[in-house]
Amino acid sequence: MTERPLVSIIIGSRSDLELAKKAEEVLNEFCIPYELKILSAHRNQKELIEYLEESKNYVKVYIAIAGLAAHLPGFIASRVEQPVIGVPRDVKLMGLDALLSIVQMPSGVPVATVGIDNAKNGAYLAIRILKIAGFKTCK
Amino acid sequence: MTERPLVSIIIGSRSDLELAKKAEEVLNEFCIPYELKILSAHRNQKELIEYLEESKNYVKVYIAIAGLAAHLPGFIASRVEQPVIGVPRDVKLMGLDALLSIVQMPSGVPVATVGIDNAKNGAYLAIRILKIAGFKTCK
Amino acid sequence: MTERPLVSIIIGSRSDLELAKKAEEVLNEFCIPYELKILSAHRNQKELIEYLEESKNYVKVYIAIAGLAAHLPGFIASRVEQPVIGVPRDVKLMGLDALLSIVQMPSGVPVATVGIDNAKNGAYLAIRILKIAGFKTCK
Amino acid sequence: MTERPLVSIIIGSRSDLELAKKAEEVLNEFCIPYELKILSAHRNQKELIEYLEESKNYVKVYIAIAGLAAHLPGFIASRVEQPVIGVPRDVKLMGLDALLSIVQMPSGVPVATVGIDNAKNGAYLAIRILKIAGFKTCK
Amino acid sequence: MTERPLVSIIIGSRSDLELAKKAEEVLNEFCIPYELKILSAHRNQKELIEYLEESKNYVKVYIAIAGLAAHLPGFIASRVEQPVIGVPRDVKLMGLDALLSIVQMPSGVPVATVGIDNAKNGAYLAIRILKIAGFKTCK
Amino acid sequence: MTERPLVSIIIGSRSDLELAKKAEEVLNEFCIPYELKILSAHRNQKELIEYLEESKNYVKVYIAIAGLAAHLPGFIASRVEQPVIGVPRDVKLMGLDALLSIVQMPSGVPVATVGIDNAKNGAYLAIRILKIAGFKTCK
Amino acid sequence: MTERPLVSIIIGSRSDLELAKKAEEVLNEFCIPYELKILSAHRNQKELIEYLEESKNYVKVYIAIAGLAAHLPGFIASRVEQPVIGVPRDVKLMGLDALLSIVQMPSGVPVATVGIDNAKNGAYLAIRILKIAGFKTCK
Amino acid sequence: MTERPLVSIIIGSRSDLELAKKAEEVLNEFCIPYELKILSAHRNQKELIEYLEESKNYVKVYIAIAGLAAHLPGFIASRVEQPVIGVPRDVKLMGLDALLSIVQMPSGVPVATVGIDNAKNGAYLAIRILKIAGFKTCK
Known about the structure:
The structure is a homooctamer. Chain A is of the alpha/beta class. Chain A has a single domain, classed as Rossmann fold. Chain A contains five helices and five strands, in the order E-H-E-H-E-H-E-H-E-H. Chain A has a five-stranded parallel beta sheet with strand order 2-1-3-4-5, with helices on both faces. In chain A, helix 1 (about 15-30) packs parallel to helix 5.
């Protein structure tokens, strides 16, 4: 993909890759350029911060997929001004821990949360946002 | 406010007005033109559909606030192509029923869910979306 | 089945078919004429509305089976005057999301909710309703 | 009310009276004749059985309101063939115990469950059932 | 077993048999005479009542195993004066529905509840009760 | 009360006294001699062990009332052979933490659990147990 | 307090001050020098990082108190090598969201979680840790 | 391992061994001497007390792994002054019963709780504590 990515998908560990793929499929189907990063808010915080500093110059929407005490989406939302979409992953407790860790953010730092394991909806939401910003999709 | 509204706040009943006010405060603070509608997906569906048909020509982001079996945000998302933000309201069960009714949408019809009773974050999220679409805010 | 259907079973997607079959078995056992439709409240709303407009002239009871943010039963209940039975399906969260999305309806738009994945009870409840309305069953 | 009651509202203790009143208001508004009984499935089982034996000759729909381990609706459903509507009351645990005790009935003994503390919907559901059975309402 | 049973194990359906066997093993190990009945509070209420009327003349402790909206233990407790032990079975919702349906009984009709699927503890508790009543065990 | 106590009510802290009183009322009503002790499993373990060593020579049933991570009933059950009744108290989380900490005991160490805050049922259950052991009550 | 603080109490907003006071009382009682900071992981991340960089040279244990999607304790644990104690605060959902957001950390980044709103136990745990590290307390 | 153990891992039954192994791996990796004991708070209380009396002279941190009504960590915390780390194990209810039984300890008897089944984090937390106490690790 040679175009500048409009969407950044960030996951905290390789075990989230399968879920990320579902988001990628939707973005590919709509011809949205994106990039995928594996960066944990807890274990690769420095690289994550560096990546956010740079990517926030071209990325329009972030999609963060995370399980357990899922801090990644909120962390991103606290460092960029773009909309951040959070996808809770069911690792334990049917994903309820991840859902609450993502959606119950304090005022001022919103995360646009979608359903548990529903990475597709993460992508579909990103596309809705890109569309009102005037970006073209192929579908 | 004479400008065309960019944001539409929709609530299902007058009892949601107090929560809507918190979203309004944030939008006012950022000088975002908006309009507020009281239209239930169950009791005023016809008016709601008519309003959506018209408003989708100028509204950029919808914010829907609802409690209990909170179908309003999903209903809107199934009828417009814009991003729809859902704010679960705690009417019963600490708002867990509303949270799940809003966030667990089927693939293809995403709702950008924020925290329970957190209408402010609904507004903050709308502002993030408007900003990447190039709209100016006064803050 | 050449008789006019008394019961309409509506499911939101093909993945609900197996559960629908359990309801069908009970209705067949009692010789209740019924019809089955696959119509999502979110993805086929227009067709669903058309079907409801027509079927409400002959259907006596609706059975709607749905998982996740299960809006289908409530949607039907808001558009017809007949009793609507909701069957929550366990797709995620053990079906708790579907149960709450179906049962916690606002006042004025009731859904007669039965147990999670218990489509049989949906059918048994329909039969109880038909019986007090004077319809004959073969059992 | 001199007419034969079409609806029977049964509550397990006097503490449920306030909730019963909400159902009564709706039934009165629609001119549906009803009767109200205070009979616990655990403490007045004999009287309850006697009442059910008699009332099932004229009652068309039962509405049972109960909290905690709410066995009343299921008990009635196991002894009459009419539709039984269960209204879970929030006495403890936000009413979740009552909701699950009412809705999760075994196959063959369905209870038409409505929302927690939502006695109004219990009445509205009864009216829908009466209507398809040909009974007239004044609204 | 030729002795008069001291313990009665009652289950609502054949699907509870496996769990009942765990209670039986413990009772056998302690040489406690018991009998096992399959009688649903909802589907065989008449037979259940007859059995309770008779067995309450010789049974010292009842153990009732049930899943879903588990009314069986409470039903027994409302008809006999002996201690009734309730064992919640995980059929749906990890057994939470059964646990709450059994333990949250109204004042005056207690059920001695043990852990989910823990029929062994049902038997161990029965043995503790029998011991203080002076019955001998072989272990 | 000059008779030897048949029931021992144990609470972990003075804040449980109000709930203990409800159990006492029932026991008094039935003329059951009892004693009340305030002994925490965590903070007064030595005194608790001493008391159990002595009281197990005359007490027939223990009632333990506890909130939060309610270990008291299980602790007693592990040190005496008598039946131990556990009453979960709602201090946090609506008493769900106490309920699960009491009822989910490992096999071999059963606690007869009653409803949340339902100390009355704790006493009623104790009376049922005493009755089959041949103790007289005045009611 | 002129001594170098051994404990650092960090809260995300002024609304957590009351809970922090309970931890302070215990630390004062044991004569443990501490300092209190109000620094949100989401709103003051830069200051928080600066503070952690400096304080990790003298602080032995961190206590972080947070509600909702409580990321503060985990954030600290990802940036310092000292033990971090997390105290979930009940702001919404009885504190379950905070509990899960704090305790369900990914492997490698542990947070020592104590009970909901139980800031005292946060302090008591800190004292246990300081004691095995050889620090003296006055009690 | 010839050195005096710094960490004691205690589990209540052999079924917890697999989880214990995960903690052992981490401790081995960091060259922390430890010992592993299988001692139930309910079934081997006497041996457990004896072991704690002795081991508290050399152990610096206890790690207790337990499922269901997990009283083991709290029991240890009530008998030693060292920090006690509790690891909830998912045996039933996704481990929620164990989590609440461990974390919701009364004030004065803290347990440092880590995530469900996350024995690794139990070990990592022990290492953090040992490090501030000046113990060397090989990593």
